[in-house]
TrEMBL record:
The keyword Amino-acid biosynthesis is annotated on this UniProt entry: no
PANTHER family xref list: PUROMYCIN-SENSITIVE AMINOPEPTIDASE (PTHR46322)
UniProt keywords, alphabetically: Aminopeptidase, Hydrolase, Metal-binding, Metalloprotease, Protease, Zinc
Domain spans labelled Peptidase M1 alanyl aminopeptidase C-terminal: 562-882
Name of this chain's protein: Aminopeptidase N
């Protein structure tokens, strides 16, 4: 046994869940903020939990990196022999039925680079407590099923920290001593510690208000650093739209007098839904046309909605334990997806979400990190804020919606809130509310929570002209995942339609049904294989399967290329139209990859060119949909489609297809670019304009890949004249790998050097560089004054982009990419384990690499694993990769 094994972090198991031994009646916190150390005093009013199996259990409070100053029990100082303190906890023995504990600790937020607990960013104080950051602030029952009322008093220097914020309502303020002032906050709602927040600093505030449908006026406040105040209007409009939508669609109103959002530039993730005081990464608050792209605007709107929606799905009803994380995250993502669909284009939103799911979540489900939507175990919970918990979890909620219909779904949601408002509950409770409200049995459906892996649904069709029937034999399998060699059948909703030879929808009737029942049907696949027979079908139809992507599965159906081209042109389901183009392109790319590996000559199939030409010239179609059809699948997605990854073959094939399409459709791209080039003069954030910009910029990308001076000039002109970041960034992306790229990059950096969010784009573009020396560029960029390794956005923009998205760059044949990643992971792990752990996931595909690279990746992983002092975060990723 080496040293690592003897002290290896142990997994926490769902089956070990026990209710807390003590519950809290209330907590009063006082913070004395200071430059060198912060004093936190807490007063806990506790009583024993009658449901706990041990009647005289010790009180174990979580605490990490705290300096304990004093403990008082019922007003009396406790002698040190009555409690034990270690690295992780404060244990108090022999308590009676109830107790009042007063605990004072000291912490050093100015030294906190993990960005968990209380920390400083640009001179201001912020907190991040989810999942287990509160224990870095004070000793506490830091688990989501301990909910209580909080009051928070903040004391700080008035000139340095004029703004002092916490959860709930501001109930008092005043002068504390010569230089310091105080503010007191009371949160009337019970909450777990992970929803606690504190902010102190020099911040400017954009104010507005929203009147709820019951007539209460809510103050809306967005706090940012003074120079950013002009960039908050889109965020404010997004808040109001979210509040209105949640009232209209879910009947849910906001419940406090004020709703505050604070933007911070050093933040590990997107944003945090702390009760009444959401803290956001600046990336999801600040937007102006010159600095933010259409995608950024949409991101702001979606993340604002997401955090706002958490007020009910997460805060009012929270999770019993962290295994239930998807209870709040999957549900809230589904809610924000539907909100965005209603605000923008439903079809485009669905396609975007499916692309994310397939590129990131399917990959995770096929990796050593695969886990169910409700995991059974974890080593570090921060590693489980994953695409599986979020995006696959949202697909699970979407399937309830598909199976129950909008009305039945809403009945289930209403019952869920009626039963569980103010409680910490489980995914089973959610399923029970959905089932009970509708008399629907979700027993089998719940396997979506417990079984990992992406199911494969195979469809075999047969047309019988004599009997006028069309039979679908549908079967399902699910590959093994770590710890789950065998899977039971899932309950899978499969939405489908049939098209006749003219492309019209055929009304559908299943054998045994008395009448025709619409043109889109939702079949329920519950067995390993099942037969569905449609009657009254007079000629061979073309099936349109998995409409709207009705389940998170891989579909296996042998469409011919003609059928795919036909669906691209005719399917009434926009998702399936796009899906047909995607399937066609994927098939062609897989052939090209195989040819590239065999060093054969590559060629472009005529069917693809014809189908793509027709799509491009279809002036009736939504330009956004066409833009998506022409967006080639990511290299990483292609890597997941092959048995053995040869990164250079994937890159060669994808680049070949890009240029070959550009050559074949040169005049059509030119025409389309011209058609939309002048179409959007003054920037508007509106779906129609976004669609035009998207297609125009896709055309520009293809045209510049032809390396013709006229098109390069076109990109340069767009780069110089753009009045918005969408066009500017697209032009820069088109130029970046050309000889003209260096000047454009320099101009861009010169103009935006003081805007960190814009500089992130500049780093990302270069991290994606497809030239052979990408790694050297990345190394050099780490020395750029705008790069800071302590800022997560910068690490994600440069290092994580390179390691996770630049397939051939990171997976260099000589292994230098792996050595680089390992070196950066070790540096980051000392500063911020969550960020280090994200970078470590770049190795998740290593087992599928061709043998030379596989051996090199393994060496890098083993070297990492040999470090005895890895954080739990990185240890978990590395050890699971090597398992
Ligand atoms: N709930 C937070 C994520 C917290 C991540 C902790 N490592 C943001 C969100 O999902 O809305
Ligand atoms: Zn969330």
């Amino acid at each position: 046994m080496n040293k690592r094994d003897s002290i290896a972090p142990q997994p926490i198991l769902l089956r070990d869940y026990v209710v807390p031994a003590f519950l809290l009646d209330r907590v009063d916190l006082t913070f004395e903020l200071d430059e060198t150390s912060t004093r936190v005093s807490s007063r806990l009013v506790l009583h024993r939990n009658p449901d706990h199996p041990v009647s005289d259990a010790d009180l174990v409070l979580d605490g990490h990196e705290l300096m304990l100053e004093s403990v008082l029990l019922d007003g009396e100082p406790m002698s040190t022999d009555r409690y034990d303190v270690d690295d992780e906890s404060l244990t108090i023995k022999g308590l009676g039925e109830s107790a009042i504990l007063e605990i004072t600790t000291r912490i050093e937020p100015q030294k906190n680079t993990s960005l968990m607990g209380l920390y400083k960013s640009n001179g201001n104080f912020f907190t991040q407590c989810e999942a287990e950051g509160f224990r870095k602030i004070t000793y506490y029952l830091d688990r989501p099923d301990v909910m209580t009322r909080f009051t928070t008093t903040i004391i700080a220097d008035r000139s340095k920290y004029p703004v002092l914020l916490s959860n709930g309502n501001r109930v008092g303020e005043g002068q504390y001593d010569r230089n310091r002032h105080w503010v007191k906050w009371v949160d009337p709602f019970k909450k777990p510690s992970y929803l606690f927040a504190l902010v102190a600093g020099k911040l400017s505030c954009l104010q507005d208000s929203f009147t709820t449908r019951s007539g209460r006026k809510v103050a809306l406040e967005i706090y940012v650093e003074p120079q950013d105040l002009e960039k908050c209007h889109h965020a404010m409009e997004s808040v109001k739209r979210s509040m209105k939508w949640d009232e209209d669609v879910y009947g849910l109103e906001y419940d406090l007098d004020s709703y505050m959002i604070v933007a911070v530039s050093d933040f590990n993730m997107g944003a945090m839904e702390n009760k009444g005081l959401n803290i956001f990464n600046t990336k999801y608050v600040l937007a102006r046309p010159e600095t933010a792209t259409d995608a950024d605007y949409m991101g702001v709107e979606a993340v604002i909605a997401h955090e706002y929606f958490h007020n009910w799905t997460g805060n009012r009803v929270t999770c019993r334990d962290w295994f239930q994380l998807s209870l709040k995250e999957g549900l809230t993502v589904f809610r924000d997806q539907e909100f965005t669909a209603d605000m923008t284009s439903r079809a485009v939103k669905r396609i975007d979400d499916v692309r994310t799911l397939r590129t990131a979540q399917f990959a995770e489900d096929a990796s050593p990190m695969a886990h169910p939507v409700r995991p059974d175990s974890y080593i570090e919970i921060n590693n489980f804020y994953t695409v599986t918990i979020y995006e696959k979890g949202a697909e699970v909620v979407r399937m309830y919606h598909t199976l129950l219909g909008a009305e039945g779904y809403r009945k289930g949601i209403d019952l869920y809130f009626k039963r569980h408002d103010g409680q910490a509950v489980t995914c089973d409770d959610f399923a029970a509310a959905m089932g009970d409200a509708n008399g629907f049995d979700f027993t089998q459906f719940k396997r979506w929570y417990s079984q990992a892996g992406t199911p494969v649904v195979k469809v075999v069709s047969q047309f019988d002209a004599a009997n006028q029937t069309y039979t679908l034999d549908i079967s399902q399998t699910c590959p093994p995942t770590p710890g789950q060699p065998e899977k039971l059948p899932f309950h899978i909703p499969i939405a489908l339609g049939l098209l006749d030879a003219a492309g019209a929808e055929i009304p559908l009737q299943l054998a045994g049904e008395a009448s025709l029942q619409g043109t889109t049907r939702v079949l329920q696949l519950t067995e390993a294989s099942q037969r569905f027979v449609f009657t009254g079908i007079s000629a061979q139809p073309t099936p349109s399967l998995l409409r709207g992507f009705s389940a998170p599965v891989k579909l296996d159906y042998p469409w011919t290329r003609q059928e795919l081209a036909f669906l691209m042109a005719h399917d009434s389901d926009s998702f399936c139209r796009w899906e047909a183009s995607h399937t066609l392109i994927r098939e062609v790319l897989l052939e090209l990859i195989a040819a590239a590996r065999a060093s054969e000559t590559l060629s472009l199939p005529g069917e693809l060119v014809d189908a793509m030409r027709r799509a491009l010239l279809d002036e009736a179609a939504d330009p956004a949909l066409i833009a998506l059809m022409f967006t080639l699948p990511a290299e990483t997605y292609l890597a997941d489609q092959v048995d053995e990854i040869h990164p250079d073959a994937i890159r060669t094939a994808r680049e070949y297809l890009r240029v070959a399409l550009a050559k074949a459709l040169r005049s059509e791209f030119k025409h389309t670019y011209a058609r939309f080039c002048g179409a959007t003069q003054a920037y508007r954030y509106a779906a129609v304009d976004i669609a035009k910009r998207a297609l125009k910029n896709v055309c520009l990308g293809y045209l510049t890949s032809l390396d013709e001076p006229a098109f390069i000039e076109l990109a340069q002109t767009q780069f110089q004249q753009a009045n918005n970041m969408t066009d500017s960034q697209a032009a820069l992306a088109a130029l970046v790998e050309l000889p003209q790229g260096a000047t454009a990059l320099a101009d861009f950096a010169n103009r935006w050097q003081d805007d960190p969010l814009v500089m992130n784009k500049w780093f990302t573009l270069q991290a994606m560089d497809k030239r052979a020396d990408a790694l050297d560029r990345v190394r050099a960029l780490q020395q750029h004054p705008a790069f800071q390794i302590t800022n997560p956005n910068k690490v994600y923009a440069l290092l994580a982009t390179f390691c996770s998205s630049n397939l051939a760059g990171f997976h260099r044949a000589d292994g230098a990419g792996y050595a680089f990643a390992a070196e950066q992971i070790l540096v980051l792990d000392k500063l911020n384990p969550q960020v280090a752990s994200r970078l470590a996931r770049s190795f998740n595909r290593w087992k599928k690499l061709e043998p030379t690279r596989r051996a090199q990746a393994k060496t890098a992983l083993e070297k990492l694993a040999a470090h005895a002092d890895l954080s739990r975060d990185v240890f978990e990723i590395i050890s699971k990769n090597l398992a």
